[in-house]
Design a protein that fits this description.
about 190 residues, PvuII Endonuclease, Chain A, two-stranded antiparallel sheet
Length: about 190
């Protein structure tokens, strides 16, 4: 997190120029290698789009919890006091707050931490914690998948949410500094 906006922009520009020389197959190979490296560093633990694993890692770090990589039905992170946190994340372009979080099929969790991640830098733009009753209040039915969904706009606008952006940004900075998430996901 200590990088200046200029250094991040310079890096992105240089990287983009280099990536343009790659074929689609080479880009997919690079993506696979990046996923392997992130897995080796225990920043992610599946081959799914990495933002879900990454969000769980950040929440576990921020809340002094542990990730259950067995994919529980309604929670992702367990905190020392026994609280079970559901984690939902969405990647959005800068300045955009239109989108939906993935479907809830259960509200058997203590609270849900919603993360909005910047699509350019993967930095945490905003993080909000909500109780299950508030999630249900803000949700609309998603009958085709037997669940409910919540929009980004409703989560960000809810007066019942707790802003947890700063603890999540601190967790992100600590993981960046360490270069891995091994202290959070030791397996």
């Amino acid at each position: 997190m200590g990088e200046s906006p200029e250094s991040v922009a310079d890096f992105r520009q240089q990287l983009a120029q280099h990536l343009r020389t790659f074929s689609p197959t080479q880009l997919m190979t690079l993506y696979s290698q990046i996923l392997d490296e992130l897995s080796d560093r225990r920043v992610i633990w599946s081959r799914n789009a990495p933002v879900g694993n990454y969000a769980e890692l950040l929440v576990a770090k921020a809340f002094d919890g542990s990730v259950d990589r067995r994919s529980q039905k309604s929670w992702d992170v367990q905190v020392e006091n026994g609280d079970k946190l559901q984690v939902k994340s969405v990647v959005l372009p800068p300045g955009r707050a239109v989108g939906q979080f993935s479907v809830f099929r259960s509200t058997d969790f203590t609270s849900c931490v919603f993360l909005v991640v910047d699509s350019d830098t993967y930095r945490i733009r905003r993080a909000v914690q909500l109780e299950p009753s508030t999630v249900l209040e803000l949700s609309t039915s998603a009958d085709w998948v037997s669940g409910v969904r919540v929009t980004v706009a409703k989560v960000l606008a809810s007066p019942l949410g707790t802003d947890v952006t700063l603890p999540l940004r601190r967790a992100q900075a600590e993981i960046d500094l360490a270069g891995n998430g091994r202290d959070v996901v030791p397996w």
